[in-house]
Write a structure and sequence with these properties.
The structure holds 3 protein chains of 3 kinds.
Chain A: H1 2-7, H2 9-30, H3 63-99, H4 101-116, H5 119-130, H6 134-160, H7 164-172, H8 176-212, H9 224-230, H10 239-267
Helix pairs in contact in A: 2-3, 2-10, 3-4, 3-6, 3-8, 4-6, 5-6, 6-8, 7-8, 8-9, 8-10, 9-10
Chain B: H1 2-20, E1 43-48, H2 63-69, E2 77-79, E3 85-87, E4 90-95, E5 101-106, H3 120-131, E6 146-153, E7 156-161, H4 174-177, E8 198-204, E9 208-213, E10 227-232, H5 236-244, E11 250-253, E12 265-271, E13 275-280, H6 290-299, H7 302-310, E14 314-316, H8 341-350, E15 358-364, H9 368-382, E16 387-393, H10 395-404, E17 410-415, H11 421-425, H12 443-454, H13 458-474, E18 478-491, E19 494-495, E20 511-512
Parallel strand pairs in B: 1-10, 15-16, 15-17
Antiparallel strand pairs in B: 2-3, 4-5, 5-7, 6-7, 8-9, 9-10, 11-18, 12-18, 13-17, 13-18, 14-18, 19-20
Chain C: H1 2-28, H2 33-38, H3 44-53, H4 60-73, H5 86-121, H6 126-140, H7 143-155, H8 173-208, H9 210-217, H10 222-259, H11 265-274, H12 278-306, H13 308-311
Classes of the chains: A mainly alpha, B alpha+beta, C mainly alpha.
C-alpha cells in the first residue's frame, strides 16, 4: 500500500496543490475577505490576526486577499505564456522536424539564436519595447519558451516521420498537415504536456524575477512576484509580508513540477520502472 | 570514477584560469578596518546610489556625480551648509555699482593635484571652455549673460555681464564651474585633476570611485582622511545590510528600517530640500482648469503619503519651497489646501466635472516611492470620482516622454533641491522651456521672477520669493506633498559629516575615530 | 571532421544572426541613452554634443557596419554610460562571473552526481522520494528570494560571508570565497535539482541494461560497477544537461549578481539595458552568445569522442 502511495506521490500532491490553487482563483473572482485595493494607512503592516489572516501591507491592504487575487495574475501569466510557447513551438518544431532539409536548418538556427540569448535579457528587452503589464510580460515569457518546446516537438517529429504508420498515411494520399496533426501529433502529445506544465512553472519564476528587476506586472495589480519585491523593505519589521508571496510562488511551482513528473511517468512508458 | 574526476578537474582548471586572469581592479573590499590598537585608519567607505555620469565637472549634469566630485573640484565660490556662499578659489570679490562687473582676486598658493600651481590662466581657460569662446562647443548656458571675461593681472579676473543678475554668484561654485587646469585639456574625464581636498585615484564603473588625500590642500590641516571610497549600490535594501554588516560606513537608510540602525549607528536626518509633487500637464484638459487642480489638491491625503511611504519622516509642503530654505520659505502656505473630500467634490462640480473624469498618472520605476505615491493618489481620487490608471515606466522613458517630451497627464516626481532660492522657483517661469515641464503659465509669476533678479536688497528678495510661492499655491500649479528627509546612517566612528541643501558628501572635515 | 566543420560554420552564422537581432532590437527600444544619462539637468546643447561625440547621429547601417568591423579587431566600441571601451569593461568583469560560474558548476557536479546515483540505486524507496521532493522544492523557490534569505539568515549572522561586493583572488583567496560562495550556492540549488533528476534517470536506464547484469554476475564490486561502467555510459545524457546548465548558470548569474551586488558581467548587462547603453549590451550579449554556443560546440566534440556512433551522422 505505501509503495503504491509513494509511486503516485507526485500525482496526488501535484493535483492537490494545483487544483487547490485553481479553486482559490475561481473563488477570488467572486469573493475575497477584504477589498484588494482598499487602503487603510492607519492599519499598515499589521501582523497576522483575526481580521487579516496574513496581516496587512504598507498601505494597510489585506495580504490574504491580495494573495488570493494574485492567483488570477499567476494563472493568467502562465496560461498566456504556455499558449504562445506551445502554439508557436509546435508549429515551428513540427515544420522543422517533419520537413527536414533546409527548412529544418534555417528554423533550427533561428531557435539556436533565440536560445543562446539569456532568457531574462530577452524578456527585459521585449518588455522594455512593448511596455510593462501582465499581457506584455506574458507574451515576452511566451516567446522565450518557444525554443524549448520547439526542440522537443522537433525531435519528436524527427523520430516519428519514418515510422510505418506515417508511410501508410502517405500512401493513402494524406497531405502533410493532416499527417502532422492527425497522426504524428497525438503520439508526442504527452511530451508536449510535460513541457507545457514545466513552462507554466518557469513562467511564474520568471515573472517574479522580472518584478524583482523592476518590470513585470504593474501596480496596483497584485502579482506574487511584485509583492515579493515590494515587501523587501519590510523583511525585519513585517516578515509575514515577505513570506506570504514567496511561499505562494514556491508551492505553486512545486505543485506544477510534481504534476509534470506525474504526467511524464504516466504517459511516457520509457521512464517507467 | 575517472570521468567524474575529469569533470571536477575541468571545473578546477576553469577556476584557476579565472584566477590567473585576475585584474586587481574590481574590488570593493575594505581591507583596513579600525584596528584594535592604535589610531583608526583614516579611510571611509560611502555608499552612493549610482555611478557618476562624468568625472569632468563641466560635463557632469546628474546631481549624483556632484555628490562625489565636489570633493575633487572647487570653484571661485563655494556653498555653505545653509545655502549661502563663501569665497573659495576666489579669495575676495567686488561687484560694481551697476551690478555688471564682478572682479575676483584669485587665491595664491593653491596647487592642483598634479603639483602645478593654480594661476589666473587656468581660471580663464575654465570659463572659455564653459562658454565656448575658444573655438570649442559651449558647454553650459549659465554664462549666456556674460559679455566678456578678462585677465586683469596675474592675480585678478573680471566678469562683465550684459544685464545685472543677483543670482550670478551661484554659477561660480564647482556645481557649475569647477576650476580645472589648462594643462589637463582633453583628459578631464579620464584623469580628473582639481584643487579639492581629495584627488582622483581610480574609477571602476559599476563598482566604486576611489579618492586619495590631497596633501597640498590649501585649507590648513584638512582633510583628515587618507582615502575615500564611494561604492555604487542602487538597491536601498542591500545598502542598509552593508551598513549593518560593517561593509560600508555611510549610507542612506530606508525609512521603514530606521529602527534596525539606531542602536549601533549614528543617524542624522537631513531635509532633502526637494519638493515631492503630484503634478499635471497644464496645457491639457482638464488640468488647464485651475479649479480642477485645486480640487485635486484638496483630495489628496498628504498625511497618508507621509506616513505610509516615508514612515513619518517628511515635512508637509504648501508650495514649491522647503522649510530647509530657511527665511525664503513661506510657512503659511501649507494650510491653504487642507484635506477635504467634500469640498474637493463640490469644487470639481463647479469646474464642470460633476461625474469626474478618467486620466493616467505616469511615474518612473527607478525609485519605488513614486509607484507607492501613485497608488495612494489613485485611491484618494477615486473618492471624488476621478478614475486614475497607473503607468509605471523606466526612468529613461519617463525622461524622454514626460520630462522632455511633455507627453503626459499626471505624474509624481520630486524636484531636486538647489542652494539658490531663485533656481528652486524658476522651473515655473513660462519662458523656461527647458525645465517647465508642467507647462505652467502665469503672467504675475513671470513678473515677480524677473523683478527679483534686478533686486539687490536681500530682504526685498525674500518678499519677492514669498510672493512667487503664494502664486504657485493659489494656482495649485502642483500638489506640493512634502520635502522628505534623508536618513543617513553612519558608523559611530565617523565624525565631521555636513548636510547641505543639495546632495553633497563633503568629506573635507570627516574623521574616523576608534 | 566534416560534421564538426559544419557545426563550426553554423556557430558563426548563429552569432551573426544574434548580433543582428541585438542591434535591431535597440533601434526599436524606446528610451534614449543620452537623455537617460544626463538626466533632468541636461540642456539641448549638451544633449546634441554628446550625441555627435558618440556617433549616434550617423545613419544606422553605418553604425552597424562600424560595429561589426570593430568586432574582428576586438574593438567593441565605447560604452555610452561609462565613456570607456566596452572591451575593457567586460574584461574587467569577466573573471568575476567566470569564477562564480566555475564554483557553481563545481558544486552542482559534486552534489548532483553522487546524489543522483544514490537515488537511482534506491529507486522508489522513501529516501528516493524524499530526495526527489527536496530537490523539487529547491527548483521551485524563486532564486532571488533564496538569495535574500541566505543573506539575511546566513551572511548577516556568520562573519565569514560578505553580503555584497567582490574580493579578487589576487588579494585574498579566502576573501574571494567569502564573496562568491553564497551566490554560487544560490545559483547551484535549482541546477542541482535539475541535474539530479537527469543523472538519476540516466543511471536508471543504464542499470536496466544487460551489460550491468553481466558485470555484476562476474562479481565486481558494486561501487566499481556504478562509477567505472554505468557512469561512463550515462555520461552522454549528463553531458547534454551540462551544456544546458552552463547556459542556465550564465543566466542565473544575472539575477544573483544583482542580489549579492557582485560586479560581474550579468550585473553590467542589467545596468546597460536600463541605461539603453546599446554598445555595452551588444558587447555583452555577443560574449554570452559566443560562450553558450561554444560550450555546446565543445560538448558536441566531446560527444563524438566518447561515443563513436555519433560521429557518423
Amino acid at each position: 500500500m505505501t509503495s503504491k502511495l509513494l509511486k503516485n506521490f507526485n500525482l496526488l500532491i501535484g493535483l492537490f496543490i494545483v487544483g487547490g490553487l485553481l479553486l482559490i482563483m475561481i473563488i477570488s473572482f467572486f469573493y475575497t475577505p477584504h477589498d484588494v485595493t482598499a487602503m487603510n494607512i492607519a492599519q499598515k503592516l499589521l501582523a497576522p490576526n483575526g481580521t487579516n489572516w496574513f496581516g496587512t501591507d504598507e498601505f494597510g491592504r489585506d495580504i490574504f486577499s491580495r494573495i488570493m487575487k494574485g492567483t488570477q495574475t499567476a494563472f493568467l501569466v502562465g496560461v498566456i505564456t504556455v499558449f504562445i510557447g506551445v502554439v508557436f513551438g509546435v508549429l515551428i518544431g513540427g515544420i522543422a522536424g517533419y520537413f527536414g532539409g533546409w527548412t529544418d536548418e534555417i528554423l533550427s538556427r533561428f531557435l539556436d539564436a533565440l536560445m543562446a540569448f539569456p532568457g531574462i535579457i530577452l524578456a527585459l528587452m521585449l518588455v522594455a519595447i512593448f511596455g510593462p503589464g501582465i499581457v506584455n510580460t506574458s507574451i515576452a515569457l511566451g516567446v522565450i519558451a518557444i525554443p524549448g518546446i520547439a526542440r522537443i516537438v522537433r525531435s519528436g517529429f524527427v523520430q516519428q516521420r519514418e515510422a510505418e504508420y506515417v508511410l501508410a498515411a502517405k500512401l493513402i494520399g494524406a497531405n502533410a498537415p493532416r499527417i502532422m496533426f492527425r497522426h504524428i501529433f497525438p503520439n508526442i502529445s504527452s511530451q508536449i504536456i510535460v513541457a507545457a506544465t514545466i513552462t507554466f512553472a518557469t513562467a511564474m519564476l520568471a515573472e517574479a524575477a522580472l518584478s524583482y528587476l523592476g518590470l513585470g506586472v504593474q501596480p496596483p495589480d497584485p502579482s506574487w512576484g511584485r509583492m515579493l519585491k515590494d515587501s523587501q523593505s519590510y523583511l525585519t519589521s513585517a516578515p509575514w509580508y515577505v513570506y506570504a508571496p514567496g511561499i505562494a510562488i514556491t508551492i505553486m511551482v512545486l505543485g506544477l513540477y510534481m504534476l509534470s513528473n506525474a504526467v511524464r511517468d504516466l504517459l511516457d512508458p520509457r521512464s517507467k520502472q | 570514477m575517472i570521468k567524474y574526476a575529469r569533470l571536477l578537474l575541468m571545473a578546477l582548471v576553469v577556476v584557476l584560469l579565472a584566477a590567473c586572469s585576475e585584474d586587481s581592479g574590481s574590488s570593493s573590499s575594505n581591507e583596513t578596518n579600525n584596528s584594535s590598537s592604535g589610531d583608526a585608519a583614516q579611510e571611509i567607505i560611502v555608499r552612493v546610489n549610482d555611478d557618476p555620469d562624468f568625472l569632468d565637472p563641466h560635463k557632469a549634469t546628474a546631481s549624483i556625480s556632484f555628490q562625489m566630485i565636489l570633493n575633487i573640484f572647487e570653484g571661485l565660490m563655494a556653498p555653505n551648509t545653509d545655502g549661502s556662499l563663501r569665497e573659495a578659489l576666489g579669495e575676495k570679490y567686488e561687484v560694481s555699482d551697476d551690478g555688471l562687473e564682478y572682479t575676483f582676486t584669485i587665491r595664491q598658493g593653491v596647487k592642483f593635484h598634479d603639483g602645478s600651481d593654480l594661476t589666473v590662466d587656468d581660471v580663464k581657460y575654465t570659463f572659455d571652455r564653459l562658454m565656448g569662446t575658444n573655438g570649442g562647443e559651449k558647454m553650459k548656458n549659465n554664462f549666456d549673460n556674460v559679455l566678456s571675461t578678462e585677465v586683469v593681472d596675474e592675480n585678478t579676473f573680471k566678469f562683465t555681464l550684459k544685464e545685472p543678475n543677483s543670482n550670478f554668484l551661484y554659477a561660480l561654485t564647482a556645481l557649475t564651474s569647477g576650476i580645472v587646469p589648462a594643462a589637463n585639456d582633453g583628459k578631464h574625464n579620464e584623469n580628473p585633476i582639481g584643487t579639492g581636498p581629495f584627488a582622483y585615484e581610480k574609477y571602476s564603473p559599476g563598482t566604486n570611485l576611489v579618492l586619495k588625500k590631497n596633501d597640498d590642500y590649501w585649507r590648513d590641516g584638512l582633510p583628515y582622511l587618507n582615502k575615500v571610497t564611494f561604492n555604487f549600490q542602487s538597491d536601498d535594501q542591500a545598502a542598509i545590510m552593508a551598513l549593518l554588516a560593517n561593509e560600508v560606513d555611510l549610507t542612506s537608510v530606508p525609512w521603514a528600517r530606521i529602527d534596525e540602525v539606531t542602536d549601533e549607528f549614528n543617524t542624522t536626518q537631513q531635509q532633502n530640500n526637494s519638493s515631492l509633487v503630484v503634478t499635471f500637464n497644464e496645457e491639457k484638459e482638464p488640468f488647464n482648469n485651475v479649479k480642477v487642480r485645486q480640487a485635486i489638491a484638496m483630495a489628496i491625503n498628504k498625511d497618508d503619503i507621509i506616513s505610509s511611504v516615508f514612515n513619518g519622516y517628511a515635512e508637509k509642503l504648501g508650495s514649491n519651497m522647503s522649510p530647509a530654505m530657511g527665511k525664503y520659505h513661506d510657512d503659511s502656505l501649507v494650510d491653504v489646501w487642507q484635506f477635504d473630500v467634500e469640498k474637493a467634490k463640490s469644487l470639481l462640480e463647479e469646474a464642470g466635472y460633476p461625474d469626474g473624469f478618467s486620466t493616467k498618472i505616469t511615474v518612473s520605476s527607478h525609485n519605488g516611492i513614486y509607484g507607492n505615491i501613485a497608488q495612494i493618489v489613485v485611491e484618494n481620487l477615486k473618492a471624488i470620482g476621478i478614475d486614475v490608471e497607473i503607468e509605471v515606466v523606466e526612468w529613461g522613458i519617463w525622461l524622454e516622454r514626460v520630462y522632455f517630451g511633455r507627453d503626459y497627464e499626471m505624474t509624481a516626481i520630486d524636484l531636486t533641491g538647489r542652494p539658490s532660492a531663485y533656481e528652486v522657483l524658476n522651473d515655473y517661469v513660462s519662458t523656461n522651456d527647458g525645465e517647465n515641464f508642467f507647462r505652467f503659465n502665469n503672467a504675475d509669476f513671470d513678473k515677480v521672477m524677473s523683478e527679483v533678479l534686478l533686486e539687490t536688497d536681500q530682504e526685498k528678495q525674500v518678499d519677492y520669493f514669498k510672493q512667487a510661492q503664494s502664486i504657485l499655491t493659489e494656482e495649485a500649479a502642483a500638489v506640493y506633498i512634502a520635502d522628505y528627509q534623508v536618513i543617513w546612517g553612519s558608523d559611530k566612528a565617523v565624525s565631521g559629516l555636513k548636510s547641505y541643501p543639495f546632495w553633497y558628501h563633503d568629506m573635507s572635515e570627516v574623521k574616523m575615530s576608534n | 571532421m566534416l560534421y564538426l566543420l559544419r557545426r563550426f560554420v553554423l556557430l558563426i552564422v548563429t552569432v551573426i544572426f544574434v548580433s543582428f537581432i541585438t542591434f535591431g532590437v535597440f533601434q526599436i527600444l524606446p528610451g534614449d541613452p543620452v537623455l537617460t544619462m544626463l538626466g533632468t539637468e541636461a540642456d539641448p546643447a549638451q544633449i546634441e554634443n554628446l550625441r555627435s561625440e558618440l556617433g549616434l547621429d550617423l545613419p544606422l547601417y553605418v553604425q552597424y557596419f562600424d560595429w561589426i568591423t570593430g568586432l574582428f579587431t576586438g574593438d567593441l566600441g565605447n560604452s555610452i554610460r561609462f565613456s570607456m571601451p566596452v572591451m575593457d569593461l567586460m574584461l574587467d568583469r569577466l573573471p568575476v562571473t567566470l569564477s562564480l560560474a566555475a564554483i557553481t558548476l563545481f558544486i552542482v557536479c559534486a552534489v548532483s552526481l553522487p546524489l543522483g546515483m544514490f537515488a537511482a540505486r534506491r529507486q522508489n524507496k522513501l529516501s528516493d522520494l524524499t530526495l526527489s521532493t527536496a530537490t523539487q522544492i529547491g527548483m521551485a523557490i524563486p532564486s532571488f528570494w533564496l538569495g535574500m534569505m541566505l543573506i539575511i539568515y546566513v551572511a548577516m549572522n556568520v562573519d565569514f560571508f560578505r553580503i555584497s561586493g567582490y574580493i579578487p583572488w589576487s588579494t585574498s583567496v579566502t576573501g574571494a570565497f567569502s564573496t562568491l560562495l553564497l551566490p554560487a550556492i544560490t545559483i547551484a540549488i535549482p541546477q542541482i535539482a535539475i541535474n539530479f533528476r537527469y543523472v538519476r534517470t540516466a543511471i536508471l536506464e543504464q542499470i536496466r541494461l544487460d551489460y550491468v547484469r553481466t558485470i555484476r554476475s562476474k562479481g565486481i564490486v558494486e561501487r566499481i560497477v556504478m562509477y567505472k561502467h554505468v557512469l561512463k555510459n550515462a555520461l552522454i545524457p549528463i553531458l547534454t544537461v551540462f551544456g544546458l546548465i552552463s547556459a542556465e548558470v550564465m543566466a542565473g548569474t544575472i539575477i544573483v549578481e544583482q542580489v549579492f551586488s557582485i560586479p560581474g558581467v550579468g550585473q553590467l548587462l542589467v545596468t546597460a539595458i536600463n541605461n539603453r547603453d546599446f554598445p555595452l549590451v551588444q558587447g555583452i550579449v555577443m560574449y554570452i552568445t559566443i560562450a553558450v554556443v561554444s560550450i555546446n560546440f565543445i560538448i558536441d566534440i566531446l560527444y563524438s569522442i566518447i561515443d563513436p556512433r555519433i560521429r557518423i551522422r
